[in-house]
Amino acid sequence: MRKIFFPVLLLISITLHSCIGKIKIDLILYNGVIYMVDNGFSTVQAVAIHNGKILDVGSNEDILDKFRSDNEVDLKGHPVYPGFIDAHCHFFGYASDLMKCDLYSTDSFLEVLERLTAYSKNNSFSWILGRGWDQNDWENTSWPDKTALDSLFPNTPVFLMRIDGHAALCNSIALKAAGIDASTKIEGGEVLSRNGIPTGLLIDNAVDLVKVKIPPFTRNQNEEALLKAQQNCFATGLTTLDDAGLGKDTIAFLFRMQQEGKLKMRIYAMISDDPATYHYFFRRGPFKNDRLNVRAIKVYADGALGSRGACLFKPYSDMPGHYGTMLHDKSYFEEIADEAMENHFQMCTHAIGDSACSLIVKVYGKFLNGDNNRRWRLEHCQIMRPKDRDDLGDNAIIPSVQPTHATSDMYWAESRLGPDRMKFAYAYEDIRDDAGGIIAFGTDFPVENINPIYTFYAAVARKDLKGFPRGGFQPENKIKRKDALRAMTIWAAYANFEDTEKGSIEPGKFADLVVLDRDILRVEEDEIPGTKVLSTYLNGELVYSAR
Questions:
Q1: Which residues of 68-89 are buried (b: 16+ CB within 10 A; e: fewer)?
Q2: What is the pLDDT of residues 197-226, one digit of tens each?
C-alpha cells in the first residue's frame, strides 16, 4: 500500500504548499517525447523524479511549475522510453566470457586458430577458454575437430564453447581431464567420435563433463568482469536483466555485490535446475528486493537448432535419421513442475524444437489447467505447431523469444527444417496472437549481441544489420513497433511479476529510463540499427551518458 500512496501523498503535499513555492525534488527531465507505455500508450514532455521513483509526468509547464531541482535536464526533443528489460539473457556468463578469447563473427576455423594463438600469448589462466564460434558462418560448415588444437596447445587444456552454448570443442588434454573417450555415453548429450577416436566435439549434456573440470575464476576477476559487463549493458539502455539459469553460489555472489553497492543492475534471477540450487530455494520460497528477484526456475528441454540438438518430431532435413535430443524425460519435467507449483515458483523452460515445445506445453497444461496467474514461460519456442501454440493461450503461458535468433538463423534454418516446417518457425507474431497478445523479448546474450535496439529491429523489420533480406524474413511475422517496445518493457516486466513497479513511466514506478538519439517508433526502418543511447537512468541515477 505504501507504494500506491507515496506519489498521492506527495502530490497532496505539493498542493498544500503551492502557495509557498515549488517543491524541490531530485531530478526533472523536460522538453522530450516521453513514451509512458501505459494502457493508452500516452506521451508527455516531462517527468519528475524523487527518491528513485517517478513522482509525476505531464507537460513542460505542468512539471516545471510544480517542481524545482538542482538537476533539471533539457532533453532537447529526444525520445525517452522505460528502461529496457532483457527477458532472457546470461549476464553472469557474458561477464565471464569477457575474460575469454572472443570467437564471435569468425569466418573460418583458421581464424579461430589465429585468434587463439594471439590470445594465448597473454593468457595467464591455466586453461585456454573461448566462446562464440559458429560453423554455419564458415565456408566449410562441417564440424571442426581437435587436431589443430592438439598441435598448437599440446600441454594446455582448451575449451571452446559454440555460440549457442550447446556444443563445445576441446583438445585432447581437456578430454583427458574429464575422463572422456570414444566409449563415453551421457543421457541428453553426445561425444562425437571418428574411427573410434573422439573428435573433440561435445554436444549438449556432454559439454558439462569438461566444463565442471575448469577451475573457477577468482572473486576479484568475477567482480571486475561483472562491473564491465554492467556498464556495457547500461550503455545499451538495459536496466533489468533476466539471467536464465544461475546456481546458488552465483546468486549469492550477485546479491553481495548489490548489497555492497557495486552492482546496480536489477536482476531477475532464474535458478538453475541442479538439485542443490533448486532444493535450497524451494525450501525458502521466492526472494525479492528492489534489485534482485528470485522466483523462477530455468529448465532445459532440448538443445539448439544450430548444433542439431533441438528435438524435432521428424528427422533433420540435412541429417536423415537424426531427431535432436531431449535432455530429460517427461517425468523429470513433471517433477520440477510439481515442486515449482507447490513452492510458488515460476517455471521457465528452454524449448526450441517442435517436439520439445509440444511436450513442455502439455506438461504445463497438466499443472496450470487453464486460466491462471502463474505466468509460466516457454523460452525460445522457435519451432511450434499451430495446435501447440494454442495451448499457450489456453493456459496463460508466456512466450519468451529472442527476435535476433530469427535473423541469425535465417541463412541456414531451412536446410535443417525443410520448407514445410519453416512455415511454423520463428513465427513471433503468430505466437504472440495465439498466446493471448503478450510476448516477452530478450537477446539470449552472449549468444546474440547485448544491444536491445537490434532486438527491436529484428522484430519489426525481420532483417539483419545489413538490411537483408530486402522485404524481411517471413515478413508476415513482423511485430508492430508499439508491441515490440511493449515486449521489451511492460510485457517483459509482466513476465517477471514486476509490471506494478517497472516497465512503464508512471507515477510510483521505479525511475528506470533510457534516452535515445532518435525515435525508434517513428524513424525509417533502416535507420533503427544506428540508434544510439544518449543516457540511461536507473532508480533516477544517471548510470550511463554518451557524453
A1: ebeebbebeebbbbbbbbbbbb
A2: 999 999 999 999 999 999 999 999 999 999
Q: At what angle do helices 386-394 and 354-368 cross, to 10 degrees?
A: 30
Q: Please tell me the CATH code under which domain 100-211 is placed.
A: 3.10.310.70
Q: Which residues, 6+ apart, have CB-to-CB distance to 267 below 8 Å?
A: 91, 240, 241, 242, 243, 254, 258, 291, 292, 293
pLDDT, one tens digit per residue, over 276-304 is 999 999 999 999 999 999 999 999 999 99
3-class SS shares of the chain: helix, strand, coil, % to 5: 35, 25, 40
What average pLDDT score do residues 257-279 get? 97
Query: Mind giving me the DSSP string for 151-218?
Result: HH-SSS-EEEEETTSSEEEE-HHHHHHTT--TT---TTEEEEEETTEEEEEEEETTHHHHHTTSPPPP
- What number is the average pLDDT over the span 518-546? 98
Q: In a 3-state reduction of DSSP, which class is residue 118?
A: helix
> Interhelix angle for 275-284 vs 248-259, to 10°?
60
Q: What gap in Å lies between CA 140 and CA 264, rounded to an integer?
A: 43
**Domain segments of the chain as ranges:** 2-77, 86-90+218-538, 100-211
